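Continuing the batch. This is chain 6 of the set; chains 1 through 5 are on the previous pages. Same settings as before, nothing changed between runs. Recording input and output for traceability.
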Amino acid sequence: MTSPALLPPPGRRFRADPDLFPPPPRSARHRSRHSSRLLRLGEQLSGAAADLLALAVPVDCVCCGAEDFELCAACDRHLRRLTRDPFRAETGAPALMDIGGRVLLPVVAAGVYREELAQALLSFKRHGQRQLRSSLGRALSRAVLAAAGEGQAVCFVPVPTSSAAYMKRGFSPVHLLLAEVARATPGVPVADVLGKAGRAGLRLAGGQKGLGRGARAKRVRGSMKVCRRAGARIAGRRCIIVDDVLTTGATLAEAARALHQAGAIVTGAVVLAATRPPDAAAAGADASGAAEATMT
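Output for chain 6:
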C-alpha cells in the first residue's frame, strides 16, 4: 500500500528525506535537496560541534538542573516512565469529537504533557538539543508503533511548522522527532506532503497558546494543503498524522481535512504529548487496544 518512493528497495538503506534534516538556523534553504552523504556529514559535524560546545559551555539538565547533562539519567528514566504506555487521547480534544461523542479522528499519545515530558519538550522546541531529541524521539516511537499496529501498511505525515516558527527556531520540531523515529525504527515510511496554504505560515506567526477551541479552529482553518505533485504519493493510501502536542485538536483536524481533500485515507494521528489526561475509559485501554482502535 505504501509508495515505492517512501520505502527503500530490498537490500538498500533508507534514503533520508532532506525535509527531515533542516540545515543550521542561519540558512533559510531548509527545503533544498542534498545528497544523503552530505546529510550524514552534516549530522556528524553537528554532533561533534555539540560535543565541543558542551566542553566549553557547561550545560544543566532541563528538568532538575544537574550539571553537564541536557537531560540527566534520573530525569531520562522519569521521561521513559511517563511515556511507556501510549494511550488514546482524542476524548480530551473537542475538535476531534462530535456533539454526540463520536470519535472523528483517533489519536494515540505517548504521554500526558506534564513533569519531565513537558519540560523536555518545551526546552527541545526552544533549542533542539541533541540529547533531548534522542530521548523524545524514543518516546514518540512507542506511540508510532502502537498506532501503526501489526501488518498495517500506513505512512506517517508530519504536521508542517509555520514559516515564522521555522525562522525563529531554525528547525521543525515534529520533523526532527519523526527523523529520530525513522532512524530508530527502520522501515517507518514518512510522507512529508503537507505544507502551509499560501502565506498562512506568516499569518499564523502568533501561535495558538492560550487560545480556546473556537479561536484555534478559526486560526488554522484552510491553513494547510498537500504540496503540489505530492498528491499522487498519498491518494488512496492510509495515513497517520504526526504532531508534537495535542490541545483542542484543531491542528490535527485541519491536517486531516487537507489530506482527505487530496484523496488520502486518514486513519488516525500520533502525538508526543496530550495536554489533557485520558478519561477513565481511555485510561483502562492498553497500547495494543489503542492501536487497533486507531486503525479501524
